[in-house]
UniProtKB/TrEMBL annotation:
Residues 1-19 form the signal peptide. Keywords: Immunoglobulin domain, Receptor, Signal. InterPro entries: Ig-like_dom (IPR007110), Ig-like_dom_sf (IPR036179), Ig-like_fold (IPR013783), Ig_sub (IPR003599), Ig_V-set (IPR013106), TRG_var/const_region (IPR051117). Pfam families: V-set (PF07686). The keyword Metal-binding does not apply. It comes from Eschrichtius robustus. This is Ig-like domain-containing protein. Residues 5-117 form the Ig-like domain. The keyword Signal applies.
Length: 156
């Protein structure tokens, strides 16, 4: 039997609302065979036709800070951060149903991380996104729960 290495890509679960913007990510995790494409989706409920709205995709690897992968500017340009491959990290936007996706082509172990989408209306006083402190506490809770499971398993 041939065993293929797998890559786990995790997306934040939940809904965040601020003002007239609502961000929803429903996928909890995706596991892909190495080399395949992972697709993450995010729904942002706001007037997607506004020229003042920027959409961002962030990634957080274990024990590392949150890093932006790319953003979609108000004039619909897709802007990748330095060092991020445009061929591997592909963003799509469907204004008709406010759906956004991030596709990671040729997934590797290096892609295993938490992924978040965020929205910024430039008319608002600050970006509308999940705050890093909240992300850290979510990660800490998941790590603590995982460590408790391991400790319990080792006691048996």
């Amino acid at each position: 039997m041939l065993l293929l290495p797998q890559v786990l890509v995790v997306a934040s679960l939940g809904t965040y609302t601020s003002g007239d913007i609502q961000i929803t990510q429903r996928i909890t995790s995706i596991t892909k065979t190495k080399g395949n494409t992972a697709s993450l989706e995010c729904q942002i409920k706001t007037d997607m036709l506004k020229k003042s709205v920027y959409i961002h995709w962030y990634r957080q690897k274990p024990e590392q800070p949150l890093n932006r992968i790319l953003y979609i500017s108000s004039n619909e340009n897709f802007v990748h951060e330095q060092g991020i491959s445009e061929e591997r990290y592909e963003a799509r936007k469907w204004p008709s149903n406010s759906l956004l996706s991030l596709r990671i082509h040729g997934a590797t172990e290096e892609d295993a991380a938490l992924y978040y989408c965020a929205c910024w209306d430039t008319r608002a006083p600050e970006p509308q996104l999940l705050k890093p402190m909240r992300l850290e506490s979510m990660l800490r809770n998941k790590r603590s729960h995982r460590n408790e499971k391991l400790a319990h398993h080792n006691e048996e």
